[in-house]
Design brief:
The protein is about 35% helix and about 20% strand. The protein is α/β, with parallel strands linked by helices and about 240 residues long. Helix 4 runs parallel beside helix 6. The protein starts with a helix and ends with a strand.
């Protein structure tokens, strides 16, 4: 049964921000192998945590929203951790919804398997593609993780699917130069859409000021240079 093969931490039943230009419901999948220092969903990291969420009830809810919602987004956590993701997506897609995915690129073989079912992907780029920098951004040993991220990016680029890359600008781990390096790399790979997201201090971070977080968004020359690199560039605060 799908209830036994999928773990969900919770859902947002109405969202206008998780799938561009679509009204969606967002499913927050349980489980993540990474420990990003800016994560606001730490309660989703343990894949074995039981939220008591009943998948079948959510499916019944979706049946009542087929003319009100455009899409369902699978977020996290890291959705690609879960083996039951493909079955869950198929069940939702059969109801007529478009499917979105939020991922950091973990487990590219799983991404490759489900990508024919997807309509859009939000791909989180954590840091410049350098071992020590990515390791600091994801909080675990990067030896196998960074190659997986790069392979996932290549899968998206060759798939033809609509996707965006985005980076959370945590000033504790990233500099303006780091963002420039990410942007150059992505543009050279052929990425068309890139967004910067403002870091909002997690509860344990009592040192980072709002001005620290804003520094990425007040340098007009820096922002202009990024805008020139992509067909679509934006800022999310």
């Amino acid at each position: 049964m799908i209830q036994e093969s999928i773990r969900v931490g919770g859902v947002e039943t109405f969202s206008t921000v998780d799938f561009p230009e679509k009204i969606c419901a967002t499913v927050f999948m349980q489980g993540c192998p990474w420990r990003c220092p800016f994560c606001h969903n730490a309660m989703l990291q343990d894949i074995n945590a039981d939220s008591g969420f009943v998948w079948s009830k959510f499916v019944e809810f979706l049946k009542t929203r087929t003319k009100l919602l455009d899409a369902v987004v699978f977020s996290g956590g890291e959705p690609l951790v879960q083996n039951g993701l493909e079955t869950a997506i198929k069940q939702v897609k059969e109801l007529g919804f478009k499917i979105g995915l939020h991922t950091g690129g973990y487990r590219p073989e799983h991404l490759e398997k489900i990508i024919p079912l997807l309509d859009w992907v939000g791909f989180d780029i954590k840091a410049p593609f350098i071992d020590d920098k990515y390791e600091k951004a994801i909080g675990v040993c990067v030896k196998t993780q960074l190659p997986a991220v790069l392979k996932s990016l290549d899968i998206l680029l060759t798939s033809g699917i609509d996707f965006e890359c985005r980076t959370t600008c945590d000033p504790r781990i990233l500099s303006i130069k780091d963002i420039e390096n990410i942007a150059v790399f992505l543009a050279n790979k052929g990425v068309k859409k890139y967004f910067l997201q403002k870091y909002r201090p997690i509860p344990s971070d009592t040192q980072t000021s709002d001005s620290d977080c804003e520094k990425f968004f007040v340098d007009k020359e820096f922002l202009s240079s990024l805008q020139q690199k992509f067909e679509v560039f934006g800022i999310r605060k």
